[in-house]
Amino acid sequence: MHDFCFTIPYGLLLLSGGVIGYAKKGSTASLAGGCGNGFILILAGVLSLNAFKKLCAVVLTWVMGQRYLQTSKIMPAGVVAGIR
Q1: Structural domains in the chain (count)
Q2: Residues 8 and 46 sit within 8 Å (Cβ to Cβ)
Q3: Are 43 and 4 a contacting pair, CB within 8 Å?
Q4: In this predicted model, what pLDDT tens digit does every residue of 48-69 receive, in sequence order?
Q5: What crossing angle do the helices spanning 28-71 and 4-25 adopt, rounded to 10°?
Q6: Which residue among 9, 21, 33, 54 is least crowded, i.e. fewest CB within 10 A of its CB?
């Protein structure tokens, strides 16, 4: 599994825990700690997900370009390599 599969849900869990701690006990430390760390984890997960998507697009273009060079067929390898 990839890291963003864990960081985004765990960040949401921390964020909600900070809000719940503040709502139940009025703890600003819980709100700051939970929301701050949760936001940082969510941001890291989203950045990692975007980098993963870009890498997948590059790999797909390279693979389809190689397939087009081997087979010289336009469908589907040439079209997919040309789209990216």
Answers
A1: 1
A2: yes
A3: no
A4: 999 998 887 777 777 777 776 7
A5: 160
A6: 54
Specify the pTM.
0.72
Burial class (CB in 10 A: 0-12, 13-18, 19+), 74: exposed
Strand, coil or helix: what is 65?
A: helix
- Contacts of the segment 54-60: beta carbons below 8 A, 24+ positions apart: 57/84, 58/84, 60/84
Tell me the C-alpha distance between 32 and 15, whole Å.
9
Q: How far is CA 68 from the centre of its chain?
A: 30
- Residues 74-83 have pLDDT tens digits of 677 666 666 6
**Residue entry with tokens 């390599």:** 81
